[in-house]
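Board notes (copied after class):
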Amino acid sequence: MTPIDQSPEVVAFIREALGLSPDARADDVAALYQSMETELPLQPDIVFKEDERLYFVEVKLNVTSIDTIARMQLLRELWHRREPGRPPVELVLAARTIRPREEQLARELGIRVIKLPRTLGPPLQSEFKPSKSRITSEKSWKIVSRLLKEKSTSIRQLALKEGVSYGWAHKTVEMLISQNIAKKNDSYVQISDVKKLLNGIAWERPMKNMSIAEIPTSFSDSIPAARDITSMLSDQNVPFAFTGYTAGGLYTGYAVRQDAIYLYLDRKNLNLFSELFKAPFNKSNRNCIRAWIYAPDRDIFTDTQQKEGITVVSPAQTLLDLAGFGYSAMDLTKALVNIYDAL
């Protein structure tokens, strides 16, 4: 799902259409998905909770298909069958375009249909225009992250401090300016729209594209889990580094996502990780800490840091990865941006 799908404007519109109070809580989608203990692609886009009722919302900005409706129905069936005592769920389909046939089928199945105005949430192209160059490429991100740290500096200084060519630094800055993400004042450049930058990262490099495994562990607390995993994998000389919510929480001091840990690991080491840490399934470990594992797309193991006995990726990589989680990690991402120049 793109950042526009789950933008504050879209979320607010759906909440109002459902007649929910402004205080209706948007639950953590990933945590609810994990609780179902299924690897099927059934995760809802938005979850609201008011009183004892849950609302699982599917957001479709393109034409809605029968497959979407079938997946929503299966999600509800699994939700109640696997644990009958769970709160009742109302399925909601928020769609910009839906054919009469699909709309009738959805209503027959008890799925509430909300029509999204085409003007709601600006088209993604107006927020971020994909180009041949990518702000999330390894060299470009060095320039972007350095610019965030320096606040305002020259292109030459960006190139010198990050060890890239002046030509590449200039190309990256011009791309940021063309996207209205950065602006130039005489010979100095600065980021002018952080929100647009973060949306662009989520569009170019979503973290879900690098996810290779979700492994339930035998741990019950996230920070002790990360600390023990750091110790044991270091003893085995296995390259790894924690990222995402885990690293972001350690850098900012925010207590987030106590139900999961996030780390980079080469595919070839997945079996070893499972042997060391995977918990056998039983009812007593249903609420165990889950490890979300990602395959690195660049060198992230060279520039790691130690935080509270835990090996984490660099601040620059943490910021890139958190932005890749999109709207669900936006508060933590912004918190990291606010202190980034001090890291």
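Comment from the instructor: DSSP finds 14 helices and 14 strands in the chain. The first helix runs from residue 8 to 17.
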